[in-house]
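Q: I'm a student working through a structural biology exercise. My instructor gave each of us a protein and asked us to get a predicted structure, then write a short paragraph describing it. Mine is Ferrichrome ABC transporter substrate-binding protein. I'm not confident about reading structure output yet, so if you can add a plain explanation after the tokens, that would really help. Here is the sequence I was given:
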Amino acid sequence: MPNTYRMNHKMRSIMAIVFILAVALISGCGSAVSVTDQNNASADSEVLSPITRTVKDASGDVEIPATPIRIAVLLDYYADHLLELGIKPHASTTSLVDHQFLPYIADRMEGVIPLGASESPNLEALLEAEPDLILAYAPSHQDIEDSLRKIAPTLMLDGELMNDWRQLLLELGRIVGQEELAQQKLNDYLTKAESAQEELNRRAGDEVFVVMRVMPKELRVYGVDDIRIGRIIHHELGLNGLKLAEGKAMQTISLEELPSLNPDHIFLMENVEDTAKSRLDELKSSALWKNIKAVQKDQVYIVEQQLWNRGIAPIGSTQIIDQVLEIVK
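A: Happy to help. First, here is the predicted structure for Ferrichrome ABC transporter substrate-binding protein. I'll explain a few features afterward.
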């Protein structure tokens, strides 16, 4: 009886060991099949993934890389949008002012290849940059379109998109495959603007704000119908402005016309040219200027022209809102 027990016990032990080994072997085989299937699926995915895709631009259908990496922008304004989408341009044109990248994003453009002014990009530098996609501005670059397409796939972006950076952001999101991110960034901006509007309404109420620009030969004012800086200040932030004659977005005025405007606040864009600075000094010293309500209340705010005029884009517009909240108390 003891011998039988020991034999049965030994047999059960052997069978248990065999069972464990069998399970381990089956599991291992199962894992191997799973990994192989995943590898095959991954390989199939790579085979099926398109190398290029077709996008429509102002000229028609254009075949571009499915995932562009080295993007060259021929309008410095576009760089702001790409940076907002987490993409640093490979190459970019520069501002006419000092031939530099826009100052408010310059710290994020380190290493980007400069291509000269947007109005006349350096095609030799563009060729040497070896981009895999070029973003051009149709109204300015139609004359060199053929040359651009010989360098790399080129999208000629419609001039109408310049009128609304919000639509341009969504369009660029589609081009680079970041539609959801572009929509999220836009939603975040609109939420920020709405919150800022509520705060500014508490601070300023019905007071009137004017955006002015001192240029070398003239003084400009921007009204509530301006679709760029006017849209931010008067519509998204809800600050009262001026309705210019005939629904004009902007008009040139003389020093003698300033008293008729008589706003409570002035955002004053100062051009960097020495002649513009001299004109501003002349303006500040005049008796007409000193009698304006905004001047008497010390509510004239000198703002950077490169941001307030050229920065009407996702990053720039956000910075403008931050500045308005900081200076309007």
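A: Here are two points you could use in your paragraph. The chain is about 50% helix and 20% strand. Residues 195-327 form a domain with the Rossmann fold fold (CATH 3.40.50.1980). It's a good idea to check both against the output above yourself.
Q: Great, thank you!
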